[in-house]
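Researcher: Structure prediction, please.
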Amino acid sequence: MSVRRLLAAVAAALLGGIGLAAPAAAHVSAQSAEVGAYTLTAARFWATAAALLALAGVVIGRLALARAVRRIGNGGTKGAIVALTAGLIAVVGGVLNLAVADGGPGTGNGVVGGAAALLLGLIAAVLGWLALGRSRRTG
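Model: Predicted structure follows.
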């Protein structure tokens, strides 16, 4: 099995897992209005995990872009693919979290984390896409 097919299979499995988890997240996200500011609800955990994944994607994408510009090692191809995949997964997670949220910030629905995951995921995907393009041009 080639590396490209393996990465495509892993990405499809992760996106499929997120798709199957969406109804469960929608059911769990029905929280009462009496949630404390520091209470970790399931929706807040989901949004925080997606935002942290997006942040990792941004860091990896930036490093891959720098490596592609300097033409060191594999040209940042692996990092670009990781950043692109992490960014897309985080965007899907952030969008799903925002779609099932029934309140605004402070209600325990993870709205702020979902928005952060959406924004950082888009940045990670763009950085990964740019690094992948530059690594293919130099390679």
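Model: The CA atoms of residues 105 and 111 lie 6 Å apart.
Researcher: Thanks, that helps.
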